[in-house]
Amino acid sequence: MADETETSFRGALEELAFAYDQVPFYREHLDRAGVAPGAVRAPADLLQVPATTKRDYRRHFPARVLARGRHLGEPGVFTVSTSGTTDERLITAHHAGLANRRLFGTMRLNAAVWRTLRAATPRRYAMYAPPQCTAVDCANPDAGMEARLMPSGRLALPTTADFLLAPGGMLDQAARELDAFRPVMLDGDPFRISHLVRHLRRTGGAPLAVGVVALGFCQTTPGDRRVIRAGVTGATVVVETVGMSEFGKIAAECEHGGLHLNTGTFYPELVAGGRHAAPGELAELYLTTIGDRLAPHVRYRTGDLYTLVGGACPCGARAPLVRFEGRKTSVLVLADGRLLTPREVAEALAALPLRLYQLEQRERERFAFSYLPEDGAAVDAAAVQAAVRALVGAGVRLDVAARDAIASSQSGKFLTCRSAAGAPPAWA
């Protein structure tokens, strides 16, 4: 990618050499492929280094993926469990110091966010995400704030796995705890936050008063952003971010609305068809960590899809400018072979007054679209039908229905697009 800096690539080379020397799994991994770290001299050379996946870390955690001499019980080390969006739960080890550098390195891509975080004293953070994303019991309504302080010091707000099932009392409790804890940043699932905002609007509650609302965990839709922006104080900065349990924050939106990858603590590659993708191509993100001396990751397949945006961003950042398209497992394959991403669906439906929706591919030529109307909105069913039909094409079966509720996935995350027709072709 043209925007990657030489410094980031050098960091990736150092990470590769360290992983080979100090991590048992990586020495075997590279030896088995016949690749020596010294043979990698240019970004294109990285393509010969075999990628790694969740399965590798699940099978070898902790002993064979931690650096020699490191262990989970040492000061500053904590573990994070993935939410298991694809039913592939995973535990990852982090060091608090590096986790903070990753967070700050990503959030400083937005100047307004960075000013807010730097000025905050004390600098507290709260999380409003699926309970599976935390190491504490968020779903117990009797648990106090102290019981939901995570090892990282973040407060996990009370919630249920399916956010639509959270009782009003629990939503009120989340709002009260935000007022009491006074975090500078609320890091959360946009569906969960917008659900809380709608509840407060219906019950006469005050707008959310935090410095930064960082939207992550699930892909943000234009409708949710509108609701959240209307439900926070005027001083609050609302920013789209992308994160992973394995790494923390990896991308953030700048003040001009462009999404940038963090190249300070990660070396990103966008890969399509076994090669580095050109601008405008749909590609999977591979990440190599930089400076991780506990549990480095080299060419880790994230399963997230991006499009590299050509040209420079008005914000002046040198970090790669990208569009986050969604999870690879959520991509739908149309009858003519074209791929339809969750981002494309969200943008096509942005003008419709929908509170929640889900497009499901049940068979190659059969789709179902379920939706909840926005509170108080009159939804034109014919307009919804026409908009979704334009997305999936004329030659397939399409069932469209308004619902009272749409369930979240078992992971607690809400998926706007689901496929029961099999994974996308192995183009990535």
Low-pLDDT runs: none
Share in β-strands:
15-25%
How many distinct beta strands?
20
Strand order of the largest sheet: 4-3-5-6-7-8-9-14-13-12-10-11
Tell me the helix content: 25-40%
What letter string, H or E per element, gives the SSE order?
HHHEEHHEEHEHEHEEEEEEEEEEHEEHEE
How far apart lie the N and C ends?
17 Å
Q: How would the global form be characterised? A: globular
The major sheet is characterized as: 12 strands, mixed
| Radius of gyration over all CA atoms, rounded | 21 Å
- Overall mean confidence score, pLDDT: 92
Describe the structure concisely.
With 428 residues, this protein is of the alpha/beta class. The protein is 26% helix and 25% strand.
Protein described:
The longest helix has 17 residues, at 6-22. This protein is α/β, with parallel strands linked by helices and 428 residues long. The strands form four sheets. A twelve-stranded mixed sheet has the order 4-3-5-6-7-8-9-14-13-12-10-11, sandwiched between helices. A four-stranded mixed sheet has the order 19-18-17-20, covered by helices on one side. α1 packs across α2. The protein is built from ten helices and 20 strands. The protein is 26% helix and 25% strand. It is globular.
